[in-house]
Structures are given as structure tokens and as C-alpha cells.
């Protein structure tokens, strides 16, 4: 046993410790480099945004931009003197709201990337201290083995031990950022590869290319007009959804917290339907388990037992749940059905308005495409072909939306929900019963919409960055 312990100790000092230290050092250096590149990208974006901000100041005057994140652009030495295209129409409240969204999103990303970079630097520092201790012990260990003597005093050994402990503590303290920040950082990067189902990247590219052309500059064509329209559409639709869910939570006496976004009205921050009672969720969880086991012991199948347990949890839980909302839809209460029809009507109206503006933009581009110079035509030919397919799909969607809106009051509610979810690109082929329809519709309202809104906002910000770099010729 003593021999084995000694062998493991020597192996740890001469091999495992240095290898682990080297791996930690390499990992830390990689993430420091990666996060630093992200910071540099945002610095470049900031210079482009400041240049665009200076151009807007020259066009509309300083008061129009007062209070925005980039209002200080006029004082920056990084502005440059090149004229920018008309990125947004400052007289349009929708584009003003979009500009505020971009500014706040940019400030948030810069803050996050800087924090992520600092934590990675901390991890790298800890890895460096730990590696210095491990490698030093390895060197002295090798010398001791070959000279068959002790070459390190107790004080020196204690110093190396303390260094190793300090390095390990620093790495551990900074490692939590991998759990908190790394996933969010990867999510931000993933938006570069995603596309919104409402506005394709090639379609948006046409707007920037046209704004860069002499005709677009002369007409002061807004490069971000469609992005602003999409931002307004998804924002207003989300506000309608959340007000609807608040009313449903009020009808069932459940707690629901407002899903606040950085660009929403600050007065809604922290808004809830009532005071939270966490103990109810604990009791509901025990009730779920008890009802499920009791149903199984009575001979009920798994599905029947699970359904009974979900009913119990939904009735006792403090929060409004997907299953609880499904049960409310199943009740068929007239006021609930009326609210559902109004929600669907509002969503379809906003969707149709956005598609109409998008199709109008496409037609306008095609009418002026033949007048563009040759270099722009070459760049846009492939994107125009892709955009044509998107345009045809949008025209078809507009026709379907108009048909549903025309028949909305006369349609049976379950049929209306299925048609609406089909327009939202949800699979409704397997929805055979009213409960199945209500369950998917409740999940769409409480889960799918939130996820899609988050992704759409991230994609919009990345598309805006791409447009800025294209304008700068990067």
C-alpha cells in the first residue's frame, strides 16, 4: 500500500499534475482569445453605429436623438467623415423604437462580452499560477529522482503548495462563468447562423443594397425599414399575448409575472397578477406525486394517472401552467372564447400588415432593380431569386390570413385555433381532439412565442450588424 501510494504521488507530481495544468492553461487561453475577438467585434460595431449616429444628427438635428445610447457619437474621435446611408427614418415612431432596441441591445451585449472576457482572464490567471506550481514541482521532482536526494526545502515546498491551492481556488471561482456565461455567449453566436421565418437574410440584404445605390440614397430609402416593421410586429404581438395571459391568470386566481424586455415600458417591470405564494408550488408537487402513485395503485394506466396528477398540480399550483391554461380553454367559458378570438384577430391583423409592407418593399425593389448600376445587379441577382420564393410564400400567407379573418367570427373555435397554428408553422396534423388542440395552443402561448421572440430579437440585432458592416464595405 505504501509503495502504491508513493507511485501515485510520483505520477501525480511528474505527469498528471503538469498535464492537468497545461490543459487548464490551454483552455483558459482559448476562451480569453475567443472572448477578446467578440469584444473587438462589438468595438467595430460601435464605431459604425457612432458614424451612423453622427449622420442622423446631421440630418435631423441633435434633439431628435437625445437620450439614446449612441447620442454621444458627435463627441467621438472615431466617427470619421464618410457619409452614411439613411439607416433609419427618425420621423417614424416605429423606426425610432427599433433604434432604441438596437442601442439597448448593443449596450447589453458590450456589457456581457466585457464581463465574460474578464472572467476568462481570471480563469487564465488561476491556471497560470497552478501551472507554475505544478511545473516547478515536476522539475524538482525529476531532479530529486535522478540525484536521489531532496532538493527542495520545506519552506519552498510549502510555497509551491500554497501557489497550487491559490491557483486552484481562482480557477474554481472563475469556472462558474462557464455555466452562467458560456451558454449565453454561444447563443449569441448562433444567431449568425439563424434566420427569422418572418424576414429572410437575403430579403433584408436587398434593402441594404438598394439603400447603398445612388437611387436609394437619392430617395433616402431606409435600410432598416423592414427590420423595424418586424420588430414592431413581434413586440406588439407579444404585448397582446401577455395581456391575454394576465387576464387568464386573473380568471383562475393564479400568479403570473410579466415577461419584461429591455425595450418594454419600464412601468411594467416587476408586474404580477398577484403576490407570489411559493409554498403552494411545493404542496402541488407533493400532490402530483401522491395522486400519480394512488392512481397507479388503483389500477389506472400511466397516461390516466399522469393526467389526474397534472389536474391536481394545475389546481393547487401558485403559477399559471400550460396544463392549467389548457383546462381553462377546455371549459369553453364564453368570456374565455371571446378573448381567444380577439387575440387571434389582433395577431393576424398585425401579421398581415407586416407582410403587406414586406411585399410592397419587394415590388418597389423590383421596379427599380433594372436602373441599378452593374456591380449592384451582380451582387443582388442571387439574393433576388431567393427573395422571390419568399415573396411568393408571403403572398400565399396573406391570402390565407385574409380568408381566416373574413370567416373568424363564424368559424368554430377549434377550427380557428388549428388554422391559426398552421399559419404559425406549427404541426397540427395529429390534433384529433379538442383537448389536444387546446393543449398545443396553450403551449404555443406560454412557451413557443417566448422562445421565438427571443430568437427573433437576437436575429434582428445580428442582421443590423451585418447591414452596418456591408455599408462600411467590410
Question: Which secondary structure elements does this structure contain, and how are they paired or packed?
Answer:
Layout: H1 2-60, H2 93-147, H3 154-190, H4 201-212, H5 214-219, H6 225-252, H7 278-297, H8 302-316, H9 322-331, H10 334-369, H11 374-407, H12 413-423, H13 434-471
What this model shows, in words?
With 474 residues, the chain is mainly alpha-helical. 76% of the residues lie in helices and 0% in strands. The protein has 13 helices and no strands. Helix 2 crosses helix 6, helix 6 runs antiparallel to helix 10 and helix 7 runs antiparallel to helix 8. About 5% of the residues have low confidence.
- Gyration radius, in Å: 30 Å
Distance between the termini: 66 Å
Number of helices: 13
The SS-based structural class is: mainly alpha
- Main pleated sheet: none
Query: How big a fraction of the residues is strand?
Result: under 5%
Morphology: flat
Low-pLDDT stretches are 60-84
Q: Order of helices and strands, N to C?
A: HHHHHHHHHHHHH
Number of strands: 0
Q: Kindly state the percentage of residues in helix.
A: over 70%
Please state the average pLDDT score. 82
In short:
It contains 13 helices and no strands. The protein is mainly alpha-helical and about 475 residues long.
Which descriptors would you attach to this protein?
0% strand; 474 residues; mainly alpha
Amino acid at each position: 500500500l505504501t509503495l502504491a501510494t508513493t507511485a501515485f504521488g510520483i505520477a501525480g507530481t511528474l505527469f498528471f499534475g503538469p498535464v492537468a495544468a497545461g490543459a487548464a492553461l490551454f483552455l483558459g487561453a482559448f476562451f480569453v482569445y475567443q472572448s477578446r475577438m467578440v469584444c473587438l467585434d462589438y468595438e467595430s460595431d460601435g464605431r459604425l453605429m457612432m458614424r451612423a449616429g453622427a449622420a442622423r444628427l446631421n440630418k435631423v438635428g441633435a434633439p431628435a436623438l437625445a437620450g439614446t445610447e449612441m447620442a454621444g457619437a458627435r463627441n467621438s474621435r472615431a466617427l470619421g467623415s464618410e457619409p452614411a446611408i439613411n439607416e433609419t427614418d427618425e420621423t417614424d415612431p416605429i423606426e425610432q423604437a427599433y433604434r432604441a432596441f438596437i442601442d439597448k441591445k448593443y449596450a447589453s451585449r458590450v456589457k456581457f462580452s466585457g464581463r465574460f472576457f474578464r472572467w476568462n482572464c481570471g480563469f487564465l490567471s488561476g491556471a497560470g499560477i497552478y501551472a507554475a506550481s505544478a511545473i516547478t514541482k515536476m522539475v524538482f521532482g525529476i531532479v530529486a529522482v535522478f540525484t536521489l536526494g531532496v532538493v527542495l526545502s520545506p519552506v519552498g515546498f510549502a510555497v509551491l503548495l500554497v501557489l497550487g491551492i491559490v491557483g486552484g481556488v481562482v480557477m474554481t471561482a472563475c469556472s462558474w462563468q462557464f455555466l452562467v456565461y458560456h451558454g449565453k455567449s454561444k447563443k449569441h453566436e448562433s444567431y449568425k447562423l439563424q434566420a427569422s421565418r418572418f424576414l429572410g437574410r437575403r430579403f433584408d440584404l436587398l434593402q441594404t443594397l438598394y439603400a447603398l445605390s445612388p437611387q436609394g440614397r437619392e430617395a433616402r430609402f431606409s435600410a432598416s425599414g423592414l427590420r423595424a416593421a418586424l420588430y414592431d410586429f413581434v413586440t406588439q404581438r407579444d404585448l397582446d399575448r401577455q395581456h391575454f395571459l394576465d387576464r387568464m391568470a386573473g380568471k383562475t386566481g393564479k400568479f403570473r409575472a410579466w415577461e419584461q424586455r429591455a425595450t418594454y415600458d419600464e412601468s411594467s417591470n416587476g408586474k404580477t397578477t398577484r403576490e407570489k405564494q411559493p409554498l403552494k408550488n411545493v404542496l402541488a408537487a407533493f400532490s402530483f406525486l401522491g395522486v400519480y402513485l394512488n392512481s397507479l395503485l388503483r389500477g389506472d394506466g400511466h397516461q390516466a394517472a399522469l393526467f389526474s396528477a397534472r389536474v391536481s398540480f394545475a389546481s393547487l399550483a401558485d403559477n399559471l401552467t400550460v396544463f392549467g391554461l389548457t383546462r381553462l380553454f377546455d371549459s369553453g367559458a364564453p368570456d374565455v372564447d371571446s378573448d381567444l378570438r380577439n387575440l387571434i384577430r389582433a395577431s393576424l391583423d398585425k401579421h398581415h400588415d407586416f407582410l403587406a409592407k414586406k411585399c410592397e418593399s419587394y415590388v418597389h425593389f423590383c421596379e427599380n432593380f433594372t436602373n441599378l448600376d452593374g456591380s449592384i445587379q451582380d451582387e443582388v441577382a442571387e439574393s433576388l431569386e431567393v427573395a422571390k420564393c419568399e415573396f411568393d410564400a408571403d403572398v400565399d400567407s396573406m391570402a390565407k390570413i385574409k380568408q381566416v379573418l373574413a370567416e373568424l367570427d363564424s368559424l368554430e373555435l377549434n377550427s380557428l385555433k388549428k388554422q391559426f397554428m398552421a399559419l404559425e408553422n406549427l404541426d397540427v396534423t395529429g390534433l384529433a381532439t379538442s383537448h389536444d388542440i387546446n393543449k398545443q395552443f396553450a403551449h404555443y402561448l406560454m412557451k413557443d412565442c417566448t422562445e421565438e421572440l427571443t430568437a427573433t430579437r437576437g436575429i434582428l440585432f445580428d442582421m443590423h450588424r451585418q447591414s452596418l458592416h456591408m455599408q462600411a464595405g467590410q
